[in-house]
Amino acid sequence: MTAGWETKTLDQISLNLDSKRVPITKADRVGGMYPYYGASGIVDYVADYIFDCDALLVSEDGANLLARSTPIAFSVSGKYWVNNHAHILKFGSLTTQRFVELYLESIPLNDYVTGAAQPKLNQKALNSIPIPYPPLGEQDRIVAILDEAFDGIATARSNAEQNLRNVRALFESHLQAVFSQRGEGWMETILEHVLVEQPRNGWSPPAANHSDAGVPVLTLSAVTGFQFRANKIKFTSAKTDSRRHYWVENGDLLITRSNTPELVGHVAIASGLTEPTIYPDLIMRMIPAPDLMLAEFLYYQLRSPSLRLEITGRAQGANPTMKKISKRAVQTLPIAVPPISTQRKIVHQLHSLTEETRRLESLYQRKLAALDELKKSLLHQAFSGRL
Prior knowledge:
Layout: E1 6-9, H1 10-13, E2 14-16, E3 31-38, E4 41-46, E5 51-52, E6 55-59, H2 64-67, E7 73-76, E8 79-82, E9 86-91, H3 94-106, H4 123-127, E10 130-133, H5 136-180, E11 187-190, E12 195-201, E13 210-211, E14 215-218, E15 233-236, E16 247-248, E17 253-256, E18 258-259, E19 267-269, E20 277-278, E21 283-288, H6 295-302, H7 305-314, E22 323-324, H8 327-331, E23 334-337, H9 340-383
Parallel strand pairs: 3-8
Antiparallel strand pairs: 1-10, 2-9, 3-4, 5-8, 6-7, 6-9, 11-23, 12-21, 13-15, 14-15, 16-20, 17-19, 17-21, 18-22
Helix pairs in contact: 3-5, 5-9
Keywords: DNA-binding, Restriction system
Domain Type I restriction modification DNA specificity: 4-151, 216-360
Organism: Aromatoleum tolulyticum
């Protein structure tokens, strides 16, 4: 322990106001101007309030206690309402409140959370969390340094995220321009007229035959994201037949026929397969006629913004989170067919642009990861007395 620092539990340095919380069902809420807080932040706005003070809210339940995809501790002020999914702690000093908020964000809570299916941080466990407790002046110094650093990190992160969006938007814009600004010799038809093998579902072996080894079967993730991933597989011990249609080969064009509205109809060209592999029922396989359409050209066209709108617009299903596109809907997609020589030229250009886009995406994603690591490092240094 750093000289002058103590270790205290949360119940020694804060007042727990959980007993004053009042949950309101959605049906009973009256809309208004006051924030209504739950485990992860503002859930709603209501017509009344039960708290009018600075406080620290800490998630009481929910998967995020373990996943930590969003903050589990957040400061609130003014007039507001809190339901029974967030603990409410009042501190004698705003500096200490912020110090504790930052500390709770820096540590895993697995040892204090109960229940795997429904994770819960009960009041007793919360109160028992040991907090490094330096003198108030040192708390103030640490909070000031961290807040300034985190403001800079947030700005850098925002810039990197915007750069990442810009890179992707530029690629999509160029892709759209290629297929909308058509030149001499271009024809229009529908997809089925440029295929030698029409779209066909694969086969999903029975779940009872899933195994740790055996015949590889592609998963939807192998195609999702417009990039083929040969390692996204599972294995089956089910009996297979080498004469059946469900085998995929390098160079085959694949399209997902079922997924979320954003991901349905993603396409990829199989590559990197080193052994006989099955493609599943939720993926369709097709092969273009080589004298009419290059597989790579069709791939880029099917992922262009205008064709993506066609595909997602044709996807159907009562479930709003899962849509399917039929074989006929795919076969009748409008397709532009330029001369093969033009296709080769366009594919070469788009390959180069794809490689540059992926390089920049990787660069900005590494920057984002580095910023996350920097934040973790600063928190670790701060609460071990080395800042």
